[in-house]
Amino acid sequence: MTDFIAGLPKCELHLHIEGTLEPELKFDLAARNGIALPYSSVEEIRAAYEFDSLTTFLKVYYEGMQVLRTEPDFYDLAMAYLRKAASQNVRYAEIFFDPQAHTSRGVPFDIVIRGLRRALLDAETQLGVRAQLIMCFLRDFQAEYAMATLLESLPYKEWIVGVGLDSDERGNPPAKFAAVYERARQEGYLLTMHCDVDQDNSVEHIRQAVQDIGVNRVDHGVNVLEDPGLVEEILEKGLGLTCCPISNGYVTESMKIEGIRKLLDLGVRVTINSDDPAYFNGYVQENLEALNFSEEDLVRLQRNAFEITWLPRHLKDGYLAELD
Ligand code: ES4
Ligand code: ZN
To answer: What secondary structure letter does DSSP report for 157?
Structure first.
């Protein structure tokens, strides 16, 4: 099964670039930028990756990314991920970035996006991996800061395919960002947002995202199973869900594989992704292996993934043909 998965042309649609920062690169960047880390070895960094909830994870995640300061730092981060993706036969990736996690500590927006963009261009020519960027707003900051970030992104609109919403979901429902999403839609961005597994009000958050905001996709969203009417609506609209089993296992008590299985059987366009692979010890290959699904189902998952990409039809069809 490992070889079968390795051979499949794959797609990654839920991947936080800051969550791909491996301890080795963290060490190198800290040295390059003259930053003292509270760890003396890569092993010590890894040992600190202990979390059992979204809150404990996010603390380590935001602390870790403080070594990212310069344009080459963001280039190196994205290039390292794209090399790893290429090694796993990932043909296309839609990559989240969190500009506010950097602008809030004094790193300018243009430094972040220019570094990431340059890596995407090089990856396409040098590695044969295509990728696009999705800009995420941090939902635990004020909506006004998200709006300011949206406006700041407009000169770079051609480099960003859509917007997302991540970070701490408790008390930060989709409705908080209704105006930001409306403006993003007017600007031509496609829309997605996290509805993390087993957060407070998960189903209500999915409902708001789908019905009130009108998203084009939902990130995670497995809790939709608790509301059959909403499942039906997602089916009718053909909306995709970007699920992340290994991540689920870290931030809740379960990888939610049974739920993913059910959604797949119902015909919902579920996909398998890695979320924050450097922290959760699994890229897309390992996430697919964790499922123990049949070859037929694994192909179906990849078909779903290419089908819900934010690519023009002819490019989707090119990738889909590789799965025939
Ligand atoms: C995240 Cl696992 C998860 N949940 C919410 N926001 C995030 N940002 C990066 N990883
Ligand atoms: Zn995520």
So the answer is: G
